[in-house]
Amino acid sequence: MNDVPSVVNEAGFREALTLRPPDSTVRRFRESQVWREGTVLDDLTRWRDESPEAIAIVAQQMGTGVERLTYRQYADHVERFAGALYELGIRPGQVVALQLPNRWQVNVLLLACARIGAVFAPIITSIRPRELERVLRRLQAGVFISIDRWDGFEHASALAEFAPRLPDLRHRVVLGDASDDEIDFVEHFQNIPWERTHATALGGLSADPDRVGLVLFTSGTTGEPKAALHTLNTLYAAYSAPTSEDGYGSADVFLSSGALTHIAGTGLSILVPLLVGGRTVLLDTWEPETAVDLMTENAVSLLGGVPVTLSALIAELRSRPTPLPALGTVVSFGTLTPGPLIEDVQSVFGLPLRTAWGMTETAGSCTFIRRDDPADWIAHSVGRPIPGVELDLRHEGSATAEQAARLFIRGAPVCLATVGRDSGEVTVIAEHDDGWYDTGDLAVPDGRGGIQLLGRAADRIGGAFMIPVNDVETALLGHPDIDDVALVGYPDGGGGELACAVIVTRAAPPSIADLRKYLDELGMTEWYQPSRVEAVPALPRNSMGKVRKELLRRWLQGGADPAALDATAP
Prior knowledge:
Blueprint: H1 10-16, H2 23-31, H3 40-50, E1 55-61, E2 65-70, H4 71-87, E3 95-99, H5 104-116, E4 119-122, H6 129-139, E5 143-147, H7 155-162, E6 171-175, E7 183-184, H8 185-190, H9 194-197, H10 199-203, E8 212-217, E9 226-231, H11 232-245, E10 253-256, H12 263-276, E11 279-283, H13 288-298, E12 302-305, H14 307-319, E13 329-332, H15 339-349, E14 353-357, E15 367-368, E16 384-385, E17 389-394, E18 405-411, E19 417-420, E20 426-428, E21 437-445, E22 451-456, E23 461-462, E24 466-467, H16 469-476, E25 484-491, E26 497-504, H17 512-521, E27 532-535, H18 549-556
Helix pairs in contact: 3-4, 3-12, 4-5, 11-12, 13-14, 14-15
């Protein structure tokens, strides 16, 4: 049975895609040079003209080998892909959605969408049909580009099942084995010279750095996931200042374990290399052994990843020590960094581990640790704000570890608006609280002009990605043996969190395998699902009826039994 919510506010989403920042904001940020008149297409054109045969992308595809694109080939592909999208009826302001692994085609598609003024909407491959249908319904995408199968899942087949319920979806494009009613990606996008057919039409199009050009969905926390509507300039603001301050150039080579379809991967593996004319190295499947080989072969100078992938890479290097003389920066994504990882990076690479913190709504980068910060500063801080960003710590009195302040942010990398995935509610950031955005995080000053994050004001759970708690709890309440449930985070040992389903049941408690099988049958994304289940007689609640999840979190880590707690405590 289809449980996708009714579509509302379709016109509101279409109108939101036409948003532009106020003229005064554009002038202010351009005068301070955190925004610009040009775009990432100008970066590509520059390097195509100055160093056409320099390698722009090295793409490792498991089972196939390595593909290399020069800057000339990169630019040629952008024109061809833009023509291919135009042939499919995509025009300025229309959405192109895609769900692909780390293949070089993602880099080109982002720029091809910018080339024709379309809106690029990437979706990570671990999102499953239940959530994917909701996302595509909200996006009203006319074209969806998918991998045929990936990581044991039949993406194209799953899409075919619910595609008839999406009235806006005109074309399904498949990279891999395409059926008769699907468009073969390689044939349509790579083999046909559409740039010749549509040369005149494409000549009349240009990228606008201040209109909505990218839609990224948050994972959701205690509420529904939201679409963050970004421009090329909000993205530029997030990555240009750190790139310039660190002095990267055309000799630099960038490798990230992050997904290209997630904001961290988009920034480090697409935007930053184009800013400086450097090289990006891609792995469609993250394997530490292959990553080490690519790092040595390509003289990688910047390495980025979440704690778990960095730890796996370090384990590989310890098993076969390999000189990496070009490596100058190691960056960890996320807010929680395990202490042992900080020590391991220093020991194995001889470098301090650094971080850049942000969120989907802020283009992934708001603060970052500078080179002049202490070597272990990542244990105490997520760094100082980038140029064009203001932070506001709101609390009655002074913020302390016991009384942390709620973190608000305002500035150049903040999205123009958010749109509820299911409700369609549009929130224009500039129209609320003088442009201040509530991050939902709790923070205190770090003593060096930056901040230390202490936790989440809402019940967020996750590591590299956040789990939409309400959504999962609602699904679990449909289980015939569950009377009440709370989803609570517990440490995964790698700097992130896993989800525990704390349930109330009158029957024999279902096992974790039972719950995951039930959620699998709903088509729920695998990493949303709990990894642990605990049964209690009743959930502790306050006088307002809200579950006291802080008590449950404490209990899961060895604290008092929630059954002994006062259920009506404030």
